[in-house]
Amino acid sequence: MDVGKRNFFRNIVRHAYKSDSVSRNVPRPPTALEEKKFIQTCTGCGECVSACPNGIIVVKNELAELDLELSYCSHCHQCNEVCPTAALSHSVSDCQLRPTITSNCNPQTAFYCAECQHGCPVGAITVQKNNKPAIDLGLCNGCNSCRYHCPVNAITTSILN
């Protein structure tokens, strides 16, 4: 698709978001503006994709989003250093994801391996008396490191809205 057509369709999408707030339905880079402003500002240029050392940023539907299936965000902020439109900002530093620990957390052994706790860069995971991990959602920055480090896939993440 040529640039003229792409910009035409992009403007249609941008103007469709006239309401005051738009819910985020895909994970964005940790420094992304609130969703409405992000959609209006991001051009999908891919500079953040090239800058991300963990390879977790992809461009889909001409907007940057996170693909956290194989890695996590180290909050290095290299993505916002290269963003030419300021859709990624120093004033924000949260992936807007929050983890939930499922019942798959070592149910047969009642043994807590602590991999998620050790992998958490902000210390948001502690061990409860029942040997289960607990997540302080106020400390969590949504980086997905706990999910990445979990050997039994017992952690899921959901987007904050």
UniProtKB/TrEMBL annotation:
<dbReference type="GO" id="GO:0046872">
    <property type="term" value="F:metal ion binding"/>
</dbReference>
<feature type="domain" description="4Fe-4S ferredoxin-type">
    <location>
        <begin position="131"/>
        <end position="160"/>
    </location>
</feature>
<keyword id="KW-0479">Metal-binding</keyword>
<keyword id="KW-0408">Iron</keyword>
<dbReference type="Pfam" id="PF12838">
    <property type="entry name" value="Fer4_7"/>
</dbReference>
<protein>
    <submittedName>
        <fullName>4Fe-4S binding protein</fullName>
    </submittedName>
</protein>
<dbReference type="InterPro" id="IPR017900">
    <property type="entry name" value="4Fe4S_Fe_S_CS"/>
</dbReference>
<feature type="domain" description="4Fe-4S ferredoxin-type">
    <location>
        <begin position="64"/>
        <end position="93"/>
    </location>
</feature>
<dbReference type="InterPro" id="IPR017896">
    <property type="entry name" value="4Fe4S_Fe-S-bd"/>
</dbReference>
<dbReference type="Pfam" id="PF00037">
    <property type="entry name" value="Fer4"/>
</dbReference>
<feature type="domain" description="4Fe-4S ferredoxin-type">
    <location>
        <begin position="29"/>
        <end position="62"/>
    </location>
</feature>
<dbReference type="GO" id="GO:0051536">
    <property type="term" value="F:iron-sulfur cluster binding"/>
</dbReference>
<keyword id="KW-0411">Iron-sulfur</keyword>
